[in-house]
Amino acid sequence: MVTRTVIMLIHPLLATVFVFWLVRQYGWRKRGMKLRGDERKQALVRHQRHGEWLLWSGICLALVAFIARAISGMLVDDDWTSDLLPQNIHGFTGPIGLILLWLVVRHGRKTAEMRENNESFSVERTKHGRASDMMMALVMIHAFLGLIYTFQVI
């Protein structure tokens, strides 16, 4: 059982780093307003790059969770599929959050593309921001439920 506990705690530990990174990325609106000129352009490029990295990190984090659940199923029931389906709200909100993260990045990409083409991008930027707001709300709920679930694992 100690092995299962250690394996099941890998996801929450990585998720903690991921959530702090998301919160920092989410703070771009406030930080971006204060910057001007080349400093803002460099910060915007960094924001876009980190957004892409966050998407891939989120996918990897979800894979870690699924792999941990598969290993847990093997250890407990000798069936890697026995633990894969979500068994609580935390398990259901993870894939939904990943879809929202993909939408945030997608709208961010469209915003950047429209800005480069000198097109009006305010509507797309608003969509990017609102999807980000929804995702962050879900992330906080998911993280809280995950914290509670971590105590069940321990």
Question: Can you walk me through this structure?
Answer:
This protein is mainly α. It has one domain (2-153). It is 86% helix and 0% strand. It has 5 helices and no strands. It has helices spanning 2-26, 28-34, 37-77, 89-116, 122-153. Helix 1 packs antiparallel against helix 3 (37-77), helix 1 (2-26) packs antiparallel against helix 5 (122-153) and helix 3 (37-77) runs antiparallel to helix 4 (89-116). The protein is elongated and about 60 Å long.
Compact description:
The chain has helices at residues 2-26, 28-34, 37-77, 89-116, 122-153.
Topology:
Blueprint lengths: L1 H25 L1 H7 L2 H41 L11 H28 L5 H32 L1
Helix pairs in contact: 1-3, 1-5, 3-4, 4-5
Into which percentage range does the β-strand content fall? Answer: under 5%
Q: What is the chain-wise order of helices and strands?
A: HHHHH
Tally of helical runs: 5
Helix fraction, binned, reads over 70%
The rough form would be described as elongated
Give a count of the beta strands, DSSP E runs of length 2 or more.
0
Largest sheet: none
Overall mean pLDDT stands at 92
Low-pLDDT runs of 5+ residues are none
Q: Span between N and C termini?
A: 10 Å
Structural class: mainly alpha
Rg computed from alpha carbons, rounded to a whole number of angstroms: 18 Å
Any idea how many domains? 1
